[in-house]
UniProtKB/TrEMBL annotation:
<feature type="domain" description="CobB/CobQ-like glutamine amidotransferase">
    <location>
        <begin position="265"/>
        <end position="428"/>
    </location>
</feature>
<dbReference type="InterPro" id="IPR011698">
    <property type="entry name" value="GATase_3"/>
</dbReference>
<dbReference type="InterPro" id="IPR027417">
    <property type="entry name" value="P-loop_NTPase"/>
</dbReference>
<comment type="function">
    <text>Catalyzes the ATP-dependent amidation of the two carboxylate groups at positions a and c of cobyrinate, using either L-glutamine or ammonia as the nitrogen source.</text>
</comment>
<keyword id="KW-0315">Glutamine amidotransferase</keyword>
<feature type="site" description="Increases nucleophilicity of active site Cys">
    <location>
        <position position="488"/>
    </location>
</feature>
<dbReference type="InterPro" id="IPR002586">
    <property type="entry name" value="CobQ/CobB/MinD/ParA_Nub-bd_dom"/>
</dbReference>
<protein>
    <recommendedName>
        <fullName>Cobyrinate a,c-diamide synthase</fullName>
        <ecNumber>6.3.5.11</ecNumber>
    </recommendedName>
</protein>
<feature type="compositionally biased region" description="Polar residues">
    <location>
        <begin position="454"/>
        <end position="467"/>
    </location>
</feature>
<feature type="domain" description="CobQ/CobB/MinD/ParA nucleotide binding">
    <location>
        <begin position="8"/>
        <end position="192"/>
    </location>
</feature>
<keyword id="KW-0547">Nucleotide-binding</keyword>
<keyword id="KW-0067">ATP-binding</keyword>
<dbReference type="InterPro" id="IPR004484">
    <property type="entry name" value="CbiA/CobB_synth"/>
</dbReference>
<keyword id="KW-0436">Ligase</keyword>
<dbReference type="Pfam" id="PF07685">
    <property type="entry name" value="GATase_3"/>
</dbReference>
<dbReference type="Pfam" id="PF01656">
    <property type="entry name" value="CbiA"/>
</dbReference>
<feature type="active site" description="Nucleophile">
    <location>
        <position position="348"/>
    </location>
</feature>
Length: 505
């Protein structure tokens, strides 16, 4: 279906080196002056920012669970750049997704929906002929997935690779495209939510160039464009589970009205503390007539005066608590603007920033903005991790009641309302003074979330009827025109959700 060539780089399992190899290939192909762009399967925020650091072009998330199959396919089609080769990085193992079903948002399902071939990354450490059995299993598990090549990662050298290559190609017919050495310097550092973000890695460019040089030396880069175009003649489907057919309606661009001339100026918090955004959400806001400008709660002295709204995304505020507390002038300006009615949409880390204070992983407590009379603290484990069906409650003023969409939670933080003794009635005052006070009813909760069961389709048209597992949970707070909550959503999955914020501008 793709008008430009592309392929999916998938792994046998998490930790096999997909992201490292993706960055190496992107940079190596860029060094050859080949126009290249990328996407990421799943809801991950961190990997796409690494992609963008290499390609200089936006990297989009392709998530069948959050978007639905049709919208995901349309998003992929609309965001391809003419003449560019597209590398789609997979998530987890090739067939791993939500639950155990084939269509559970796995990399394999996304490859089938997009009709893209798969290049499989295997860890060759400790293997020789057994690698052929491994590849054969992945080739045969779902015949509708076109396995077009193998790259062998983390092996000792050329001689080792030749043993593995001979066995794989002889016994499976799948071509081996090259290998990468086991090299400690290629390792990307991690923290509690995954990789340390690209924005914090000072030596990233040198590290990626070193990985690209290894890829150029050991991988047949010239074969990748041919692999990417092979699906034109090779699309095949299982007789029991055909490749899905897609609607011609493009719910991505044509969700509500498209305004070519910006009508609103929206600040987007973007710095080392806040940078978790879906690129397609930013595009959708532009389609609704928003001009987006970056703001930094870490560095800017105040909010820009001409903002019509503010988007506070997720990130790592817990890693920058001291600096966020130190920028008191920005926090004060944000509280004043909220009191004046500025429409604010805050998710995950942005939600925590709107609380009175935040206790980090070391047990240190930092003062935040105080927009909500609540305390945020980090815990030792993930909270409500995974996909969830999100429904707006009836007794809250921010969203129309009963809107249902899909969300994803990936955080260790919790937000708890402060005891009544710390809440002066219906009025939240800043630092105990009347200056800049926020007068308005604090509403909580705002949303109810439910875990989906491992049954049924997750396409947008059937989201509302898919069964969910009990019990659910609630989340979110509002005051005046400000909302904060933990789930990340794609606005265009159900545009009525995002339009509730747009209409307040």
């Amino acid at each position: 279906m793709a008008s430009t060539p592309g392929f999916v780089l998938a792994g046998t399992h998490s930790g096999v080196g997909k992201t490292t190899l993706t960055l190496a290939l992107l940079q190596a192909l860029k060094n050859l002056n080949l126009p290249i762009q990328s996407c990421k399967v799943g809801p991950d925020f961190i990997d796409p920012r690494f992609h963008e650091a290499v390609t200089g072009t936006p990297a989009y998330n392709l998530d069948a669970c959050l978007l639905g199959d049709d919208t995901m396919v349309n998003l992929y089609g609309e965001t391809r750049l003419p003449g560019h080769l597209t590398l789609v990085e997979g998530v987890m193992g090739l067939f791993d997704g939500r639950g155990s079903r084939h269509e559970g948002s796995s990399t394999a399902w996304v490859a089938r929906c997009l009709e893209l071939p798969v290049v499989l990354v295997i860890d060759g450490g400790g293997l020789s002929t057994s690698a052929a059995a491994l590849v054969k299993g992945y080739r045969d598990y779902d015949p509708a997935v076109k396995l077009a090549g193998v790259i062998v990662n983390r092996i000792s050298g050329e001689k080792h690779y030749r043993l593995i290559k001979e066995a794989i190609e002889r016994d499976t017919g799948i071509p081996c495209l090259g290998w990468m050495p086991r090299e400690a310097s290629f390792h990307l550092e991690s923290r509690h939510l995954g990789l340390v973000p690209a924005i914090e890695v000072e030596s990233l460019r040198q590290q990626i160039q070193a990985m690209a040089q290894a890829a150029a030396a050991h991988i047949e880069l010239h074969r990748l464009p041919g692999v990417a175009q092979c699906m034109d003649a090779c699309v095949s489907g299982s007789p029991h589970e055909p490749v899905p057919q897609h609607s011609p309606i493009n719910r991505f661009s044509h969700a509500y009205q498209h305004f070519p001339t910006p009508r609103h100026t929206v600040g987007v918090a973007y710095d080392a503390a806040f940078h978790f955004y879906y690129q397609s959400n930013l595009d959708w806001l532009r389609h609704q007539g928003c001009r987006l400008i970056p703001v930094s709660p870490l560095q800017d002295p105040t909010l820009p005066a001409d903002l019509d709204a503010l988007y506070l995304g997720g990130g790592f505020p817990e890693m920058f608590g001291e600096a966020l507390e130190a920028n008191a002038s920005f926090r004060e300006s944000l509280r004043r603007r909220v009191a004046e009615g500025l429409p604010v949409y805050a998710e995950c880390g942005g939600f925590q920033y709107l609380c009175r204070h935040l206790t980090d992983l070391e047990g240190r407590t930092w003062e935040m903005t105080g927009v909500f009379p609540a305390a945020s603290r980090m815990t030792s484990r993930l909270q409500h991790f995974g996909y969830c069906r999100v429904t707006t409650l009836s007794d809250q003023p921010y969203f129309p009641p009963g809107i249902t969409t899909w969300g994803h939670e990936f955080h260790r933080g919790v937000v708890e309302s402060l005891p009544a003794a710390h809440q002066p009635g219906e009025e939240t005052r800043i630092n105990g003074s009347g200056t800049g006070s926020i007068s308005g009813e604090i509403t909580t909760p705002v949303l109810t979330m439910e875990k989906p069961t491992d049954t049924g389709s997750t396409d947008t048209g059937s989201n509302a009827t898919e069964s969910t597992a009990a019990p659910g949970w609630t989340c979110g707070m509002t005051v005046k025109n400000t909302f904060g909550g933990f789930p990340h959503v794609f606005f265009h999955t159900n545009p009525a959700f995002g339009m509730a914020w747009i209409k307040k501008m």
